[in-house]
Write a structure and sequence with these properties.
The chain has 249 residues and is α/β, with parallel strands linked by helices. The protein has ten helices and eleven strands. 33% of the residues lie in helices and 20% in strands. The strands form two sheets. Strands 7-6-5-10-8-11-9 form a seven-stranded parallel beta sheet, sandwiched between helices.
């Protein structure tokens, strides 16, 4: 399968992760390089740190100035290098013998949402998430905090052309289900028994027409008419549950 280029590393300073879950998951990931760590003696004393890792003992106020205002850093901050590129063809090959779902995000740019989606993807054992590189947030402390360690677990494929990626996913044997609240079919009716790729759009705008054109079916979540829509991260969690529940039956 053809590899899709991604513009690899964010420009500017290295990301700083904060909070116990995000930092300990980064330390445990053999594919992640942690460049430096700051923390209180109590917080760092609870970690099994590599002897070569530069450590700076800091107080809570100093670390508060290193992260976004009011960020819950829990007395620990780490500077990290972004993870290496993940290629869609490689991930599809790794998942060819199982039915783990794929999540495709169409211009979901809020780091809180993408982090929460990664967390649900880890919880429901998704194969990967796929985003368009130009319209997705970079790795950051905000995203890593929302992901609660899942950024280090779930492969995140960034592609230049989302439509081309959806074609590649279809060629690998996935049934592409786009989620749209105006659809006539429910997700339970749409899933079937094939491997599925769940395609979700940004909050408000929803799926773009070109993305819809590259789905096999459009489906909705069966929510009450009293509520117009769900947050995209909640919708992703419910769709993943539907796919997992199908497999368990």
């Amino acid at each position: 399968m053809k590899k899709t280029h991604r513009s690899a590393k964010p420009k500017g300073a290295f990301p700083r992760f904060y909070g116990r879950h995000a930092v300990t998951a980064a330390l445990a990931n053999p594919n992640r390089t942690v460049r430096k760590i700051w923390g209180t003696r109590e917080a760092l004393g609870a970690l099994d740190l590599p002897p070569v890792l530069p450590i700076v003992y800091s107080d809570v106020a100093d670390m508060g100035r290193m992260v976004p205002s009011d960020a819950p850093h829990q007395g620990i901050v780490a500077e990290v290098e972004p993870l290496d590129d993940v290629w869609l063809g490689d991930v599809l090959e790794q998942g060819q013998d199982d039915k783990r779902p794929i999540l495709v995000l169409d211009q979901v740019t809020d780091p809180h949402n993408v982090g929460a989606i990664l967390r649900s993807a880890a919880a429901f054992d998704a194969l990967c998430i796929v985003t368009q590189d130009r319209h997705a947030p970079p790795e950051s402390g905000v995203l890593a905090r929302a992901a609660s360690g899942a950024l280090e677990i779930v492969p995140w494929v960034r592609v230049v052309n989302l439509a081309r990626a959806l074609d590649e996913i279809a060629e690998a044997g996935y049934w592409r289900i786009g989620l749209d609240g105006e659809a006539d079919t429910t997700i339970g009716e749409a899933i079937g028994q094939s491997r599925v790729a769940l395609v979700l759009g940004a909050e408000g705008e929803g799926l773009r027409h070109n993305s819809i054109a590259h789905c096999d079916i459009i489906a909705k979540l069966p929510i009450s008419p009293r509520m117009e829509s769900l947050n995209v991260s909640n919708a992703a969690a419910i769709a993943l549950y539907a796919a997992t529940n199908r497999q368990a039956e």
